[in-house]
Specification:
Largest sheet of chain B: 5 strands, mixed
Shape of chain A: globular
CATH class of the largest domain in chain B: Mainly Alpha
Radius of gyration of chain A: 23 Å
CATH architecture of the largest domain in chain B: Orthogonal Bundle
Strand content of chain B: 15-25%
Helix content of chain B: 25-40%
Number of strands of chain A: 0
Largest interface: A-B, 102 and 89 residues
Order of helices and strands of chain B: HHEEEEEEEEEEHHHEEHHH
CATH superfamily of the largest domain in chain B: Cytochrome c-like domain
Shape of chain B: elongated
Order of helices and strands of chain A: HHHHHHHHHHHHHHHH
Number of helices of chain B: 8
Oligomer: heterodimer
Number of strands of chain B: 12
Number of domains of chain B: 3
C-alpha cells in the first residue's frame, strides 16, 4: 500500500502480526475493531437469515423449537453486545476522536489496546458458547427462566458479556479524558465537531450504565450456580427486579448505539450540503439531554409486567419527553440542507436513509411510549419492527455512511462510488421490505420469539423474508468492494470531499503521529463558507 | 380485505375500539410528521442540488424561533397523546365492580383455567358475551403473558404473585389466545382460543362439566384437610382470626397498617403467614408452602370468598356435594 503514499503512514510503519497485535496506535486499534465487529456482524447476520428462513412458513419446519430459540437468542446477543454497542465508537470513534481534536492519540493508548483484548475475549466466550450448544433465553435473559429453568449455557455467555462490558467502560473513560484534556489549542467546547459531543454523551452513558448490567449478570450467575435467591420467587427473589436492573442498562444502551450514529450524521450532512450545522448548540445539548433522560425511562419496557399504574404513568411521560431532543436533531439536520449545495455521494445517501428510517422508528417509539397502545403491541412484532428501525435503520445506516465517508482517510483509497450508491439504495429498499410488514403483523397480534405461527400471518412474513434477502445482498456488496478498494481503489487525496475538520488536514492515510505539526484551531466547526465547493462528483466512480 | 392477508385485527371488545382509535390517531400524526420531513428532505434535495460552479453557501447559524417552535409543538402533541393513552390505560387496568372471575395458572407450556363453578379448561377460555370477565392469574414456573389480540389486552402471569387482566367481549366468536412472554421450548405452542358465547349458551356450557365440584367446595375440603379449621374456628380459642367476613374487608395489621384482604393478600397469608400478621394475634401460623399448590390456593381463596358472600345471606357451602363425590377432583396438596 506504500506505492501511493508520500511517506510513512500508520499502515506502512510496521508489518507483521506483532506490529498489529501489540500496537498502541488508536488508528490501528480502530482497524482491529473493524475486523472484529465485521466478523460479529456477519455472524449475527447469518443468524438473522436463519430466523427469516424458519418464518417463511407458519409451521416450525426448518429447525426444532429449541434450535430456533437459540438462533434468535444468539442473533440478539451477537448483534447488540458485539456489533451495535461497540460498532461506531470502537471503530470510527477510536480512529477519529484524536484526529478531530488534533491529538496524537487517545489519553491512554495502552488502555485502548486492553479494551480491544477485553472485547475479543468476551466475543470468544460467546463464540465458545455457540460451539458448545448456545443459549436459549433471548438476549434479555428474563428470570426465573434464565436462572432456574433453562438447561442451556448461561454462565459462559454471561461471562462474555461481562468481560466485553469492561471494554466499553474503559473506552468511554478513555474518550472522556481525551476530550477533556487533549484538545488542540483554540479548540473550545463549542468549536468541537458534533461527532465529539455525541461520543462524549455516549461515554457518559457507558460509564454509568455498564456497571449495572455487569452487576446484574453476576447476580444472575450467582443465582444460577449457587442458588442465591435474587430473582426466582421459589428462592425468595423477585423476577421483576431483574427486569428493572436489566432495562436500567439496556434501555440507555439504545442511546449508546444511536448517539454515535447521530454524531456521524452531523459530519456527513454538513460536508455534502456545504453548510454549517443548523442550531449547533441545540444539537449538542440534545445529545446530553438524551443521555440524561435516557436513564429515566427503563420502565416503559414493563407496562404489562405487573408494575404499578403510577409507575407506568411516570415512565410513559418521561418516554414522551426523551423523544423531543431526538426530534430536535432531525429538524436541525433537515434545516441544515436549506440553501445548501447538496451532492448525493454514498455517505449522503446513507444520511437520507438514516433520516427516513430513524423518523419512522422514532414516531413508532411514541406509540410504544403511549400506555394504551403498548399494552396491545408489547412483545409483538410491532416492537421488533420498531427497534430494528432504530438500531439497524439508525445505527447501521450511520455506521455505513461514516465508514464510506472516512474510508479514504482510513485506507488511503476511494471506495467505488457507483457501487456505493447502488448498495445504499438496495439496503434502504431491503430494510423497509423486511421490517415494515412487521409493524402490521405486530398490530395484528403476532407475538415475537414464535417458532411457529398462525397461518393468517404468513403473507406478511414472506414479504419480510423476501426483504431480508435483499437486505443481505445490500450488506454483502460493500463488504466485497471495500475489501477490493483497499488494493485497487483510486488513490485518495488528503481531503477528497472538501470537508472541514482537522482529520482532513493531514495525509490519507495519516502518519502514525497524526499531524506533522500540532494544529491550532481558530474558527468554529463546519466553516464551509470559507472552502470552495468541490467540483460536482469530483471523485465519483 | 383478503382473508389470507389481514391488515387490521378484529375488535371484539369495547376497549379494543378505544385502543384502535388511539392507535389510528397516532398513526395519522406519524404520517403527518413523516410526510413533512420527507417532503422537506426531497424538496431541499431537488432545489438545492449541487450545480457546476456553485459558490459556497452563506452560513446560517440557526433560529431560536424555529428551535422553540419545533420543541414546543411536538411537546404539546406528545403530552396530549400521553394523557389520552393514560386514560385508556386506566380503563384497561381497572376492572369494573361487577366482574365474573376466572382463575388462570400458566405453566410451561399450557394455560390452565378454572371457573369458580369448578369447570376446568386448558388452552381454551369460554366467556359470556357482554359480561366483564376478570382473570386472576399466576404461574407455576416462569413468566408467561396472557394476550388476546382481539381484546387488545395483555398482562404477564408471574410466579409467586397474582396479576389481573379484564375484558368485556362485544362479539361472539373464537379469538386467538397467545403467550406473549418468551417461556422456553414450546413458547409458540402455548396458544389457544377464547370462545365468546351468548350468555345462555355459556350457562349451558358451564353446567355441562362432568361431576366437577365448585372451587369453593374443593376449597372447603382443603380447608379441613390442611387443618386450617383447627385455629380459624370460633371454638378453637381464637388462635387465628375468623375468616367469615375476611375477603375484601380491611384488615388491621400488628404494624398499625391496614390492608385490603384481596386475593394477593390471602395468597401471601397462606404461604408467608409472618409477613402481615393481623392486629391482636400472635405470629403462630405455620407456612403452607409445599403443602398446597397454586390451584389449591386458588380454591382456598374461592372458599373464603364464598364464606364472605355467605355472610351476606347466601346459602352456606354445606349445601355443596358430599366429600366422597369430590374426592377425585381435589388437588393433591
Amino acid at each position: 500500500m506504500s506505492e501511493h503514499s508520500t511517506g510513512t503512514n500508520y499502515l506502512n510503519s510496521g508489518y507483521g502480526v506483532r506490529s498489529w497485535l501489540l500496537t498502541v496506535d488508536h488508528k490501528r486499534i480502530a482497524l482491529l475493531y473493524l475486523g472484529s465487529v465485521t466478523l460479529m456482524f456477519m455472524l449475527g447476520g447469518i443468524f438473522a437469515a436463519l430466523i427469516r428462513l424458519e418464518l417463511l412458513t407458519p409451521a416450525g419446519d426448518v429447525f426444532q423449537a429449541d434450535t430456533y430459540n437459540k438462533i434468535f437468542t444468539m442473533h440478539g446477543i451477537v448483534m447488540v453486545f458485539f456489533f451495535l454497542i461497540p460498532g461506531i465508537p470502537a471503530v470510527l470513534g477510536n480512529f477519529l476522536i484524536p484526529m478531530m481534536i488534533g491529538a496524537r492519540d487517545l489519553a491512554f493508548p495502552r488502555l485502548n489496546l486492553l479494551s480491544w483484548y477485553l472485547f475479543t475475549t468476551g466475543a470468544l466466550f460467546t463464540l465458545f458458547n455457540i460451539v458448545i450448544g448456545g443459549v436459549d433465553t433471548g438476549w434479555t435473559f428474563y428470570t426465573p427462566y434464565s436462572s432456574s429453568y433453562t438447561t442451556t449455557n448461561i454462565v459462559p455467555v454471561a461471562l462474555g458479556i461481562f468481560i466485553a462490558g469492561f471494554s466499553s467502560i474503559l473506552t468511554g473513560l478513555n474518550f472522556i479524558i481525551t476530550i477533556h484534556k487533549m484538545r488542540a489549542p483554540g479548540l473550545t467546547w463549542f468549536r468541537l465537531p458534533l461527532f465529539i459531543w455525541a461520543h462524549y454523551a455516549y461515554s457518559i452513558i457507558v460509564i454509568l450504565g455498564t456497571p449495572v448490567i455487569a452487576i446484574t449478570i453476576v447476580m444472575l450467575a450467582l443465582e444460577r450456580v449457587f442458588r442465591l435467591g435474587f430473582f426466582d420467587p421459589a428462592l425468595g427473589g423477585d423476577p421483576v427486579l431483574f427486569q428493572h436492573f436489566f432495562w436500567f442498562y439496556s434501555h440507555p444502551a439504545v442511546y449508546i448505539m444511536i448517539l454515535p450514529s447521530m454524531g456521524v450524521i452531523n459530519e456527513i450532512v454538513t460536508c455534502f450540503s456545504r453548510k454549517r450545522i443548523f442550531g449547533y448548540s441545540f444539537v449538542a445539548a440534545s445529545s446530553l439531554t438524551i443521555a440524561l433522560l435516557g436513564f429515566l425511562v427503563w420502565g416503559h419496557h414493563m407496562f404489562v409486567s405487573s408494575q404499578s399504574v403510577f409507575a407506568g404513568l411516570v415512565f410513559s411521560v418521561l418516554s414522551f419527553l426523551v423523544a423531543i431532543p431526538s426530534a430536535v436533531k432531525v429538524f436541525n439536520w433537515t434545516a441544515t440542507l436549506y440553501k445548501g449545495s447538496i451532492s448525493f455521494q454514498t455517505p449522503m445517501l446513507y444520511v437520507f436513509g438514516f433520516l427516513g428510517l430513524f423518523t419512522i422508528g422514532g414516531l413508532t417509539g411514541l406509540m410504544l411510549a403511549c400506555l394504551g397502545i403498548d399494552v396491545h403491541v408489547h412483545d409483538t412484532y410491532f416492537i421488533v419492527a420498531h427497534f430494528h428501525y432504530i438500531m439497524v435503520g439508525g445505527t447501521v445506516m450511520g455506521y455505513l455512511g461514516g465508514l464510506h465517508f472516512w474510508w479514504p482517510k482510513i485506507t488511503g483509497r476511494m471506495y467505488p462510488e457507483w457501487w456505493g450508491r447502488l448498495s445504499a439504495l438496495i439496503i434502504f429498499v431491503g430494510f423497509n421490505l423486511t421490517f415494515f410488514p412487521q409493524f402490521i403483523v405486530g398490530y395484528l397480534g403476532m407475538p415475537r420469539r414464535y417458532h411457529a405461527y398462525p397461518p393468517e400471518f404468513q403473507v406478511l412474513n414472506v414479504m419480510s423474508t423476501a426483504g431480508a434477502s435483499i437486505l443481505g445482498v445490500g450488506y454483502l456488496i460493500p463488504l466485497v468492494y471495500l475489501i477490493w478498494s483497499m488494493r485497487y481503489g483510486k488513490v485518495a487525496p488528503a481531503n477528497p470531499f472538501g470537508a472541514t475538520g482537522l482529520e482532513w488536514q493531514t495525509a490519507s492515510p495519516p502518519p502514525t503521529e497524526n499531524f506533522a505539526t500540532p494544529p491550532v484551531v481558530t474558527e468554529e466547526a463546519y466553516a464551509y463558507d470559507k472552502i470552495p465547493v468541490p467540483e460536482h462528483r469530483a471523485y465519483a466512480g | 380485505m383478503r382473508s389470507d392477508l389481514p391488515l387490521f385485527p378484529v375488535a371484539a371488545s369495547a376497549e379494543a375500539r378505544q385502543v384502535d382509535l388511539l392507535f389510528l390517531a397516532t398513526v395519522l400524526l406519524s404520517i403527518f410528521f413523516a410526510s413533512l420531513i420527507t417532503a422537506l428532505l426531497i424538496g431541499f434535495a431537488i432545489k438545492y442540488r449541487r450545480r457546476p460552479k456553485d459558490k459556497p453557501p452563506a452560513t446560517i447559524h440557526g433560529s431560536m424561533a424555529l428551535e422553540i417552535t419545533w420543541m414546543v409543538i411536538p411537546l404539546f402533541l406528545a403530552l396530549t397523546i400521553f394523557v389520552w393513552g393514560a386514560d385508556v390505560y386506566f380503563q384497561l387496568s381497572r376492572p369494573p365492580n361487577d366482574t365474573m372471575t376466572v382463575n388462570v395458572v400458566g405453566k410451561r407450556w399450557m394455560w390452565k383455567l378454572q371457573h369458580p363453578s369448578g369447570r376446568r379448561e386448558i388452552n381454551e377460555l369460554h366467556v359470556p358475551l357482554g359480561t366483564a370477565v376478570r382473570l386472576n392469574m399466576t404461574s407455576e414456573d416462569v413468566i408467561h403473558s396472557f394476550y388476546v389480540p382481539a381484546f387488545r389486552v395483555k398482562a404477564d402471569a408471574l410466579p409467586g404473585r397474582y396479576t389481573t387482566v379484564w375484558f368485556r367481549a362485544t362479539r361472539t366468536g373464537r379469538y386467538h389466545l397467545f403467550c406473549a412472554e418468551y417461556c422456553g421450548t414450546q413458547h409458540s405452542g402455548m396458544i389457544g382460543w377464547v370462545d365468546v358465547m351468548e350468555p345462555e349458551a355459556f350457562q349451558a356450557w358451564l353446567a355441562g362439566g362432568a361431576g366437577e365440584v365448585s372451587m369453593a367446595t374443593a376449597g372447603e375440603h382443603l380447608f379441613n384437610d390442611l387443618g386450617c379449621v383447627t385455629c380459624h374456628n370460633p371454638g378453637s380459642g381464637a388462635r387465628g382470626p375468623l375468616l367469615d367476613r375476611l375477603y375484601a374487608s380491611t384488615v388491621k395489621l400488628q404494624t398499625g397498617e391496614s390492608v385490603t384482604a384481596d386475593e394477593a393478600y390471602l395468597r401471601e397469608a397462606i404461604l408467608y403467614p409472618a409477613a402481615k400478621v393481623t392486629y391482636g394475634y400472635q405470629p403462630v401460623m405455620p407456612t403452607f408452602r409445599g403443602l398446597v399448590n397454586e390451584e389449591g390456593i386458588l380454591e382456598l381463596i374461592e372458599y373464603l370468598k364464598y364464606r364472605a358472600a355467605g355472610q351476606e345471606g347466601m346459602n352456606a357451602p354445606a349445601a355443596a356435594p358430599a366429600p366422597a363425590a369430590s374426592q377425585g377432583k381435589r388437588p393433591t396438596p
